[in-house]
Amino acid sequence: MSHTEAVVCLNLLLFLHVVHTQLRNNGQQQWPVPYRRFDRRPAVDSYCEALYPFCPTGDRDGRIPYMRDSDVVSVYRLQTPVWEFKYGDLLGKFHIMHDAIGFSSSDTGANYTMEWYELFQLGNCTFPHLRPEAPAPFWCNQGAACFFEGIDDLHWSQNGTLEKIGEITGNQFNDMAQWVQDDNETGIYYETWTVRSDPSPNATVWFESYDCSQFVHRTYRKLTELGAKLSSRTQTNYTKIYLYSGEPTYLGNDSAIFGQPALKNLAVDIRKFYHTFRPHQSFIDFAISLLEAYKKVVLDKSFYLYYNFEYWHLPMKPPYLQITYEEVPLP
Questions:
Q1: With the C-alpha atoms ordered 163, 164, 165, 168, is the resulting torsion angle positive or negative?
Q2: Are strands 205-207 and 194-196 parallel, antiparallel or unpaired?
Q3: What is the superkingdom listed in this entry's lineage (predicted)?
């Protein structure tokens, strides 16, 4: 590329950025903000470490077994309290649930579990690390699908749900498997929060979450598109974690905020906000951080959201935060 071509490309990028910003400022922003898709999944940064390894018994490359066309595959709805393996039903009492899908082949008798969750646990996907050598917060927020052989009946049924909701053919299963792999390559990051204007049914949704239950919903819809008939004998409820705010303000990405001297105060304020939610705090520090979080979110009515690798400011409003367990019917 010549020098002239490089200058033209740079000017075009700057022009597109200005137009994009003006569209937001002119009230033409699309709500909810569409979740950004990628061409492929990037490599994981070695700085990110998981307390519990991701998908330890699944295929390393995310491959899903092929089913014969004539096979009849049972589909199961799976739900259990988050971290049930460690805390039992404790988080279930607050309706903080994890969702997955089970499959059982009539040809082979093999059972399989499919779920989508954080590579580095929920805390790392919700709040970043602040590294002294890096001006911008550092995020370990990838999420991915995990497919492995077996269904742990006790894990899912003891404090949650293990229910057969339909049957599909082997061919439908294989088509779904290809869709899962494509979806997994392009939807790469986990998003904890759903952000709305208020709790009413007609509220404006500013941002949608992208988590385990959303993956389950997308898969159910895909199975229905492929001709599956799904039904449940019980109400199908799912966990939602809401933030409530007025209309969000777009701030920019890492290079726009943390690489610009003119935005130094904003950069400092974002780092101070996330410092409150830093990992590995002592009990005393955690107690202090809770008070700081209350001041920032409730008293100052301020929250910084990281979505699509860009920062937004949320002018918070009552009831500020809410965990619900609400019905999402099968498609």
A1: positive
A2: antiparallel
A3: Eukaryota
**Catalytic site residue from 98, 125, 140, 313:** 98
* Cβ–Cβ < 8 Å for 92, 129: no
Tell me how far apart the alpha carbons of residues 318 and 320 are, in angstroms, rounded to a whole number: 5
What secondary structure does DSSP assign to 212-239, as a single string?
HHHHHHHHHHHHHHTT-----SS--EEE
pLDDT along the chain (331 residues), means of 10: 37 38 61 96 90 90 92 98 89 94 98 96 93 93 96 93 98 98 96 97 97 98 98 96 98 94 96 91 89 95 98 98 96 95
Using CA atoms, how far apart are residues 261 and 259, in angstroms rounded to an integer?
Answer: 7
CA-to-CA distance for 190 and 238, rounded, in angstroms?
17
Per 3-state DSSP, what percentage of the chain is helix, strand, and coil (rounded to 5)? 35, 30, 40
Residue 48: active-site member = no
Active-site residue, selected from the candidate residues 125, 140, 146, 212 = 212
CA distance 286 to 282: 6
Interacting residues of 176 by C-beta distance below 8 A, sequence separation 6+: 168, 219, 222, 223, 226
Distance of CA 116 to the CA centre of its chain: 9
Residue 128: strand, helix, or coil:
coil
d(C-alpha 319, C-alpha 235), whole Å = 26
The torsion angles phi and psi of 329, rounded to 5 degrees, stand at -60, 155
pTM for the full predicted model = 0.88
**DSSP letter string over 149-193?**
E---HHHHHSSSEEEEEEEEEHHHHHHHHHHHHHHHHH--B-B--
How far apart CA 78 and CA 213 sit, in angstroms, is 10
Which tokens go with 7? 């200058």
Pairing mode of beta strands 302-307, 97-105: unpaired
7: enclosing H helix or E strand = helix 3-25
On the 0-12 / 13-18 / 19+ scale of CB atoms within 10 A, 201 is exposed
Beta carbons of 273 and 304 less than 8 angstroms apart: yes
